[in-house]
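Protein record
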Amino acid sequence: MIEFLGITIHLYGVILGLGIWIGTEAVIISFPRMKAEIEESFLWALSGGVIGARLYHVIDYWGRYYQYNLMKIWAVWEGGLGIWGAVTGAVIGVLLFSLFKKKSVRPILEAFALGAPIAQAIGRLGNWVNGELYGKNGEPLFAYEALLNLSLFMILLILRKKKAYSGKLLGIYLIGYGVIRILLEGLRPYEIIWRINGVPTAMIFGVISIIVGVLLSRRRS
């Protein structure tokens, strides 16, 4: 947090904003013919992503914190965004955009899938600034995930240039990120893991993500 001319600037928010900007620019550069659709649907995806991310986090911490601190539900700048909520919310945002604007949803989701992992990689640095997302043995999970997301971005970028993978980047992203979260979830401290019937929620979403990704990847373009 930085104070400048009486204005409080939260580094967490600045880093998230930087990640989103770089991710969007990467999408526009990679899909120049879709520039208009990407720019037009951006606010829909962003709004859905932020709402979904915060909702996921608030539900996770409701019994431990937010039911006693209702006004803190809106304090997004203090941290607390669930990435699976962000992904789900962004997809819903794009679906709504496509519905109201009568645009094909698949190409737009395909484009945003390429920029998502680089945005997530940069966004994880916000966890470092807030002093959060460390493993049960002190491992910097934010750094692990940032590096893995960056690797996923590079893979998608390479596959983008191969026509054989046209229309399948969304599926590959969902598979890749699902695997990343499943691998890292076991390193998190037990007490901070949101579980449903004893199973980590992030792993449930990870498995669903992989299944959906496989189905999308097998579809004909």
User: Anything to note?
Assistant: The mean pLDDT is 87. The first strand starts at residue 2 and ends at 4.
